[in-house]
Amino acid sequence: MHMTLHITTGCTMRCDYCYSPPLARRDMEIATARRAVDYAAELYPVNAGIIFFGGEPLLRLDLIKETIAYCGEVEKAKNAHFHHKVTTNGMLMDKAFLEYAGEANLTVAMSFDGVAAAHDAHRKRADGSGTYDALLPKLDLLLKHQPYASVFMTVSSETVGRYAESVEFLLGRGVRYLIVSLNYAGAWTDAHLKTLKKQYVKIAQFYERLTLAERKFYLSPFEVKLASHVRGEDHKCHRCALGMRQVSVAPDGAIYPCVQFVKDGENNRGFSIGDVFSGMDESGRDRMYELSQRRTPECESCALATRCNNDCSCLNWQTTGVINEVSPLLCETERMLIPIVDRLGERLYKKRAPMFIQKHYNAVYPLLSLLEDQEAGR
Amino acid sequence: MRIRPARKYPNPAYPAYRLVADNPDVLSRHVPAAWLRNEIVVGALAAFTLGGCRSNVTVEAIPPATAGQQKPDAGAGGSCGEAWTPERRIETFGGTVEFKPAKTGVRKKTAVKIAPLFIHGKGAGSTGCVAIAPPVFMSEDAARDIVIGEMKAAGIDFDRTDVDAVDEKMSDSAEGPLKDFLLDGYSTKLRLGFEFVSMEDFARFGGVHSRSTVQRYDLKTCAENARSVLGDHFKVNVAIFYDPMTNVDMGRGRKERNYPAAEKEARLDSATDLTAQVRDFIAWAKREGVLK
Ligand code: SF4
After folding, report:
1. What is the per-residue pLDDT for A235?
2. Which atom of ligand 1 is nearest to the CA of A338?
3. CA distance readout (Å), B279 to B240, B274, B276
4. What is the mean pLDDT of residues A148-171?
5. For the complex shown, is ipTM > 0.90?
6. A292-325 tens-digit pLDDT
7. What's the CA gap between A305 and B54, in Å, rounded?
8. Spatial separation of the C-alpha atoms in residues B5 and A304, rounded to whole Å
9. Less crowded by CB within 10 Å, the N or C end of chain B?
10. Which pLDDT value is given to residue A92?
11. 3-class SS of residue A164
């Protein structure tokens, strides 16, 4: 179970594709954060994930530190276990923070959109200037402190022509976990889709080269689609499952089933499923979950239904306004990506590429990979 | 742009996971070059991926130094406790530990019987961010109650618990995994001890702590490792049991998604599995003459 705490609606940047753009600033009180931690320990004492999110969460580093310290107290008192993550735009990240993150076991994930032209197209300051030059050294610093840090990259219709170049750039820069999302809320045309297809083919070729060279990396759109065949239905165990494995907590303590529903923390109450003070409305959550699992008749009849991202409720809601209704754009891009990834998987398996086989078929691959890195670092 | 369901889609020509899991040779034959140059990784690959009942790490994949120049007999490695099991050399927090194969039955030097593992419960699972069905872990105390209770019902009394095996001269090693090792229970009359391999023993018997948010525990493999260590150093008969680690089933389709209730059910299943391990041991021990 992951609990994402939206600790502030304030932000140091003004990315124009943001799904909850900063309006009036609201910050979480420490009492609310503490209550959220207690509640997470009740729900999932085995290993609850506390994720700090915003706005820009590093605006409230004080609150992050207090909350993590409180988790330590709860661990001792209640025999619960926590792990911590923060997702940042990187502007306030510095050496002192990363040293603290190392000591506190706080995993840091950063947003970065690739080459300068792609990154600066959307990731801007309030004055409209791009942030690439300021953030590239911060990315390097993060990778130095946390080599396995995830980097979140967004691809929009405006930057799709630089998708492959940006992937190459970031993996070349040392990023090992690259999580890429398309900005489905943007204005995509058929011409953009043609470009996207070419980019996917290029990325597949790049993926193949890297894998044959036995490089280790995680590139989310490709890994997820490979897993959707290799693991079958099991690959869905990695998904958030709308309120079942992950919930979001707004600054005032209201609980939502996913980050995108929180918005400004006030004006989307219809999707709230309780609060950290009085607990979760389990029947409301279950109703929402069950609705999210109901496929439309079109998807039900589709041969790709189990491999498609048709059940990402927040994405559906964001694009169609209905949590179980897919957008035509999602349908087009899924039908485009799956065959490209399958041809890649076939080529790599035919060549018996060792890294492909270990990465996708060996359950302890992460452990072996870590051991290898530790040994190499000695 | 429109929604267009795919009427047909050919099955891709790369295998599903279960096919490779049923043919672990695929994993042993195709190992990245950098891993093959690294003894620790190869050892871990052998122990965690290819070890246990289906061990069949081929010599072509494992450099001789790591494979111990011990070539598997033709057809060996197909069943548990038979002619050949890979060496297990594993990095733990306390340093490198080597686990050699253990054989079931009478050990000539000491005339001590090392019971096989009795498999009830898969003894493995993961906790962490993507682990949606985490296992329940059984405490040493809860396990001791079950083992001692079940043995007592069969007329076997364990008169001592937490026995320092070296001080009591039951063992000839206080190093490596046996450093500060206490046997969970011991019957002076029968010269029979038992060890329950719990999460607390994970690192001692070869488990490796992950640095990611996901941790996989394989206590069954740890129990197999414990067998090999105890078999080499103990001068008394020892039974080894392991935590069955039942997963908490919070799956879809269940009306109740209440963690405490599901956890309780899982604990009950684990207790049932451990009881079955003990009963199998008693039957085996009677057949082998360890118990009259
Ligand atoms: S590809 Fe399109 S029709 Fe098929 S399951 Fe996905 S969204 Fe539905």
Report:
1. 60
2. 1
3. 12, 9, 5
4. 96
5. no
6. 777 888 888 898 988 998 878 778 888 888 878 8
7. 35
8. 8
9. C
10. 97
11. helix
Best of A293, A300, A304, A367 to mutate (most B CBs within 10 Å, chain B): A367
The token pair at B59 is: 């010599």
Alpha carbons within 13 angstroms on the beta-carbon side of residue A151 total: 33
- Closest residue, chain B, to A46 (C-alpha): B127
Residue with tokens 């600033």: A25
The residue behind tokens 């494992």 is: B62
CA distance B49 to chain A (A): 7
Number of Cβ atoms within 10 Å of the Cβ of A195: 17
Residue A165 CA to ligand 1 center (angstroms) comes to 28
CB contact burial A122-145 (16+ within 10 A = b; e otherwise): bbbeeeeebbbeebeebbebbbee
Of the candidates A324, A347, A326, A348, the one whose C-alpha atom is nearest the C-alpha of residue A335 is A326
Q: Using the beta-carbon criterion (under 8 Å), do A302 and B6 form an inter-chain contact? A: yes
In angstroms, rounded to a whole number, what is the distance separating the alpha carbons of residues B292 and B274?
22
Residue B133 phi, psi (nearest 5): -120, 75
CA of A207 to the centre of ligand 1 (A): 25
Which of these, A235, A225, A352, A291, lies nearest to B23 by C-alpha position? A352
Question: Is A214:A355 a contact under the CB 8 Å cutoff?
Answer: yes
In three-state secondary structure terms, A251 is coil
Q: Give the pTM.
A: 0.65
Both tokens assigned to A220 = 């989310």
Distance separating alpha carbons of residues A361 and B2, to the nearest angstrom: 35
Residue B59's pLDDT band (cuts 50, 70, 90): very low
B48: three-class secondary structure by DSSP: helix
Instruction: Read off the tokens for B3.
Output: 């929604």
Three-class SS state of B133? coil
Q: Enumerate residues lining ligand 1, CB below 6 A.
A: A 298-299, 302, 304-305, 308, 310, 326, 330-331, 334-335; B 3, 5-6
Is the per-residue pLDDT at A334 higher than 90? yes
Give whole-number Cα distances, A369 to A218, B125, B236, B283, in Å. 12, 19, 39, 42
H or E stretch covering B223 = helix B219-233
In chain A, what are the domains?
3-199+214-294 (3.20.20.70)
Average pLDDT in the A327-354 region?
94
Cα A333 to its chain centre, rounded Å, is: 19
Arithmetic mean of pLDDT, B44-62: 45
